Amino acid sequence: MQPDALRMPGATLTTRLKVYDTLTPDGQRGGTPHVHLMCSEMYFVLAGHGFVEMIDWNGFSRLPLSPHSALIFSPGTVHRLINPDGELELFIMMQNSGLPERGDNVVSFKDEILRDDVAYKTAMKVSSFEDAYLRRDGGVEGFLDLKEAFKEGLDVGRRSLNRFFEHATARTKNLRSTWQSVIENGPLYEAQKSLKHLDLLAQGDASYLQQAAHFAIAPDAYKTPGFCGALNRYFDPATLELEGVIKKEGQESKRALNEVL
User: Fold this and answer.
1) CA 10 – CA 186 distance, rounded (Å)
2) Are 30 and 146 contacting, i.e. CB atoms less than 8 angstroms apart?
3) What is the rounded (10 degree) CA torsion for 259, 216, 67, 139?
4) pLDDT tens for residues 163-218?
5) Residue 142 sits in a domain of what CATH number?
6) Scanning 14, 146, 162, 209, which has its CA 20 to 30 A from the CA of 60?
């Protein structure tokens, strides 16, 4: 029996995040408002205080974040991190092998950007933190429009939110086959492997336990621009291979970081 590559439990993906602390168009400090079509996420607060602002089918909400608190939200939650004191750091867990880092992260731009493929791709392109701030600010402007729509009434807000969902569906249509492959080779594969192990145990066969492995990961510094802040990752989202300084049996190796765009 050949051992599988070691990866996160259930083929999830994790990262640490130092939330942006620069000013946005509404005078708050924080990250980029966006939505996921496929993935739930968990935020666990490592340090600092702040807020998550969210818009879903029931309207706008704002929840406080403090050290060791956690928040879990499902697809369809437009979310935005607020970092008033500049100290907010999170540990994030993403469903489905990190699909949020494979395009499942549609920014809440204004309609004129969302409705056009070229305009959207241009607004999403990031090669520096300065670019990331511009992308964030564009998302904040659209987020504020959604927030205002809900102030006019639940029906008005839901129509605006549904229009955003329709744009998000259109902007990600070319990613569906990739997402399917990631899910089949990630969480689905891991679930099927667990069922296979259960069958082996029922037969009194625990030989798969002989393939146990372990790695220690020391992530690199916060240096990759993400949607909500600077990222410090444990796994490469493109390959699911371990990232950072990898330690196994007294040996160390270094894996290159790929920029998240």
Assistant:
1) 8
2) no
3) 10
4) 999 999 999 999 999 999 999 988 999 999 999 999 999 999 999 999 887 777 77
5) 2.60.120.10
6) 14
